[in-house]
Fold:
Amino acid sequence: MYPRKFSYVAPNRVEEVLTLLRKYRDEAKLLAGGHSLLPMMKLRIIGPRLVIDLKNLRDRLAYIRDGARVVRIGALTTHADIELSRTLMRDIPLLPETARWIGDMQVRNMGTVGGSLAHSDPAGDWPVAMLALDASVTIQGARKRTIPLSRFLKGPFTTALKPTEILTEIVVPKPPKGHGWSWKKFERRAGDFATVNVAAIVVPDGRGRVKNVSIAIGSVNPTPYRAVNAERILRGKRPDAGLLDKAAEMAAEKAQPSSDLRGSAEYKKWLTRVMVRRALEEALSRAGITLEMTQHA
Amino acid sequence: MVRVRKTRAEIEGRWREEFVVEEEEKISPWPAEASFRYIGGRVKTVDGVAKVTGSATYTVDVSLKGMLVGKFLRCPYPHARILRIDTSDAERMKGVRGVFTFLNVPKIPWYGGLTNILSDVLRFQGEEVAFVVAEDEGVAEDAVEAITVEYERLPFVVDPVEAMREDAPKVHPDGNIFAGGPSKISRGSIEQGFGEADVVLEETFRTSAVLHNSLETHSAVAHWTSIGLTVWESTQAINNIRQRLSQIFSIPLSMVRVVCEYMGGGFGAKFDPGRHTILAALASRMTGRPVKVYLSRTEENLAAGCRAQSIQRVKAGFKRDGRITAMRLEAIINLGAYAEWVPLVGGPYRMLYQIPNLETVEWGVFTNTTPHTAMRAPGFTEGTFGLESIMDMAAEELGIDPLEIRLRNYAEVEPESGVRYTSKALRDAYLIGAREFGWEQARSVRKENGKVRAAGLASVVWWGGGGPPAYAEVKLNMDGTIQVLTSTQDIGTGTRTVLAQIVAEELSVPIERVRVVIGDTSLELFSPGSGGSGTLASMGPAVRAAAIDARNQLLDIASQFLDAPPEILELRDGRIETKEGEKSIRLEDLLRQLRDFAIVGRGARGPNPDGYAVETFAAQFAEVEVDVETGAVRVLRVTSAHDSGRIINKLTAEGQVIGGVVQGLGFALLEQRAVDPASGSIINPNLFDYLLPTSFEAPEIMPVFVEPLDTRANTLGAKGLGEPPIIGVAAAIANAVSRAIDLRITQLPITPQTILEAVKKAKK
Ligand SMILES: Cc1cc2nc3c(=O)[nH]c(=O)nc-3n(C[C@H](O)[C@H](O)[C@H](O)COP(=O)(O)OP(=O)(O)OC[C@H]3O[C@@H](n4cnc5c(N)ncnc54)[C@H](O)[C@@H]3O)c2cc1C
Structure:
C-alpha cells in the first residue's frame, strides 16, 4: 500500500507552515498524528502534492496549560497526553475518560486532539466531548481567530478551517467543582469508532437540583449536536426516572442516523436514547443528585 | 522387506486412496502408563524466540538481488466483461518491467477450469484483471493506476437463494448450481422417522461468509532460473504447491522447489498456489529476475477466500424422552464465483448423533462474490450451529436438560458407516467439561443490574486422524546434535516443537539438541499439507519411526564400541549405557568417533487401521451476559473439553483451543463479509469495518483435555486439534444467548441489533 508520490517538509515555525499553505492551498495537507491522513493516502483516496509534517512544532503546539477558568490544549497534544494529564483528571475528568476509549494504544500515542477536530469525522470522539464542554478553537491564518467549536464543525469532514489556516489551540472552560460528568461510547468492538457517543455534564445547584446540564451526541448526525431541548427540561429540576426517560427521548429525536454496518437507523436512534439516559444517570449521580422517587419509577 | 499397501486418507472430509510403503518393523504405540520427559508436558515452542525477535524468515522477508515487485489491478464490479484494456501508459512508465493481461498470458485453466489465470470475464469484485511487475512497489501501484479498462457491466447475483432461481443472472454458462444439483445423502426412512416422532421442530438457520484474516496475507517470491523454478510461498502445503506448479508449467517435479520456512497462518486458505504465484512465476520466467508479490489486506479480504455463507433448513423429530427419530437438512451454500468442492455443512448432522433416519441435501450455489476456500473446519463450523441449535430447541420443548438430551443421542459407533471408533471420549468431555464449567449452577438464567446471564453448550465432531504418506529422517550429527528432516511445514501450530519433543523423547536427549528442518520440498521427504487437523497425527508417527530407526542403528554401533550386546543397551540423558550402568559412553563422544558418518534413521507414517473411524470430539460451554437494552453480548467464559487423543504438548494445545474459541466468538458475534445488495460491492474489505475480536472481547477460556488412550489410530495415540476448538463455539454462544433472552437465535453473527429486533418481534 503505497501513496501516490508527494513532497514532504517538516517546518520549524508556524509562519513557515502558513507560507507553504498559502502557496499550495488545497494541494497541501498538514500531517499531525497521521492516523486519519495516512490511511487515506495509502488507500489513494487522496493524493496531496505536499505533506507538511507538524512534528517539529510539538514544542510549541503540544501542551496542556492550566488557567484560572480555562484549560488550554495545544492542537498537537496527543490523545495519550490527555488520557494521562493530572490537571485534566482533576478539573475536567471527562477529557481523560474520552481519550481512554479512542482506538488502541498506538492510535492514542500518535493521534492528536487538533487533528481529530480538524478531521471532523461524524463519529469522532473529541468533537462530542468538546462540544459538551463549550470549547472554542483558535485558528491561525493571516490573522488569528477564536471561534466556538459549534461554529467550527460544519459537517462531515468539513470545518471552518480555510486551506491557508492551521488549528493551534483548543480552549476548554472548566466546569465548576463538584460537577458530574459521563462519557458513554457504544462500540461494537474494542477500538472501534462509536455507534453512538454521548458526553454529559451536570452542574448541581447545591440543593439537589440541576443547575446546568449539557448533553452532546455524536455519530448519529452529520455533525455532533447538543440536545438543547433535553437540557432545557432538566434545568432547575430534581429529575425522576420519568423525566430522564423523557429527556433521553427528546435528545434522540434530533438524531437522523443512516443505516450501515453499525446498525439500522431505527436501532441507532433507540441506542441514542439508551445511551443518553445512562449518561444522565451517571452524571447526575457523580454530581450528587439523587433521583426523585415516583410511583411509576 | 518393504511392503506396499493401499489405504484411504482424508483431509477435511475429502477422501483419497494412497499407497504407503510400510515399515519393516512394527512400532508399538506408547502405552498408557508410559512416563515421559517431554511428551504431554508444557514445552515452550522451540522457535518462539526466532518469531518474536524477528529473525524467523517469512515469505515477505525474502529479498533477492534484482527482485521485482508485482501488483494486481482488480475488478471493481461483481460481474463484468473487459471491452478494451489499455496498458500502454503503464508499460511506458519508468521502472515497469512487464504488464500482463488476458491478451498476453497463456490460457492456464483456473478454479478447476471455470475460468483462466487471467480472463476478460470477471465474476467477482476483486477478481484479477491485470498484473504489473516493476522495480519497486510504489512504481507498480502507479502503473496499476495508469491502466485504463472499459468494462461492460453484466447482470450479477450475490444472494444464493436468488441465484437458485431459474431467471437469475448466470454466473457461469452452465448455471449457478454446482454439479447441476444437490448432494443428497440419506439413511433409514425420514417419513417413517417423522411419523414416529412425538415432537417435530422446524427452523431455518443462517450463517455469514467470514474471512480467514491470517496475520500474514498471501504472498510469494518466484525465481525462475536455468535449473528450474524456486518459489517461496506462504502456504500450508509446500508439496501440493510443488505438484501444481509442475503440472501447470509442464516441468518435472525435480525442477520445482517450494519453500515456506515460517508462515503467519492459513486457516485453510493456503493449500494451493494463487494467481499471484503463477503470475510471479510467469513474470520471473520472462524477466529472468525474482518477483515478489504480497497481497494487501484489502486484496486478501476481497479475493483470497472466505468461509461460505450457509442457509440451513432443518426439520427434526423427537421422542418425548429426547431421542431423535428423524432429521432432515436442506442447506444452501454460497460458494462464491468459483469452486471445485462444496463445504460439508451436512457433516455434523451425519456424524454427531445416532440418528436412525436422516436426509441431508446440500446445494452448492455460485454467486458473484469471493470464491470460498477451506476455512478451519469448513462446513462443520456452520453446520454445528444449525444442528446444535435445534438440539437445544428440542431440549426446551421437551423439558430436558441440554446436556442430557445430547447424552441420550450419543453415537456409540460411527453413525454413517457403523464402524467402531479407534477411541471416543465425548461422554467424558461432556461430563468433565460440565463439571469444570459448573454447568449445574450456570445453566439457570440470572438477572443482575439490567443484564441477563445464561449458559449454553454445543458438541463437536471432526476428523483429524491424519494419515500416510508422510516421511521423515532423523540424523545424528557428529557434534551430537540431532536433525529432524521432513518437508512438512508449520502453519503456526507449533509443528517444530512437537516433532522435536518426539525425537528428544525417543532418543532421550535434551530438546535443545534437536533441530527440526522443515518447509522445503528439496528435502525430498514427502509430507501432506498442514490442514484437516492432521499434521501431528500424520507427521508425528513418521518422525517417531525415524527416531526409533536412528536409535536402533546407534545402539548397534554402540554395542561394538562398548563390547556389549545391543539388547542390554539403553539411551539415558544423552548417554548410551548398559542396563546396570557399568559401561557407558556419551552420545557426542560416540558420534565424534564416527567422524563424518552421520546416522540417518528413516521413518514413514503407517496406514490408518481398517474398519475403524478416527475422529475427534469436544464439548464446549459458554456463559454470556446480554444487555437487553442495547443488545450487546459479552461472552464471559468458555470451557472447551476435547477428546483429541493424547496431547503431546499442553502449551501448544491450549494455544489451539484459545485461538479457536476466539475465532469462533468472532463468527458468533462480530464477523460478516458484508455485500451491498444494490451494487454487489463488498463494503468491508478491511480490518476497520470487518470486525475481528480483540483481547477485550476474549472471554476467560478454560481448555480441558480428556485424553483417552488410543492405541489404534497411530503410534502416538494423538489425534488432531487444529479445527475442533472453533466448531461448537458459535452454537454454544447462540444457545446461551437464546436462553438469556428466551428467544431462539437463528442467525450469525448475533449483532446487538438482531437481539433487539428479536425481543421486539416477540413482544408483538
Ligand atoms: C485504528 C484507528 C482507530 C481509531 N479509533 C478512533 C476512535 O475510536 N475515536 C476517534 O475519535 N478517533 C479514532 N481514530 C482517529 C484518530 O483519533 C486520529 O488520530 C484522529 O482522527 C486524527 O488525528 P491525527 O492527529 O492523527 O490527524 P492526521 O491524520 O494527521 O490529520 C487529520 C486531518 O486533519 C488535518 N490536520 C491535522 N492537524 C491539523 C491542525 N493542527 N490544523 C489544521 N488541520 C490539521 C490534516 O491535514 C488531515 O486532513 C482512529 C484511528 C485509527 C487509525
The first helix of chain A runs from residue 14 to 24. Chain A has a mean pLDDT of 96. Residues 48 and 199 of chain A are 34 Å apart (CA to CA).
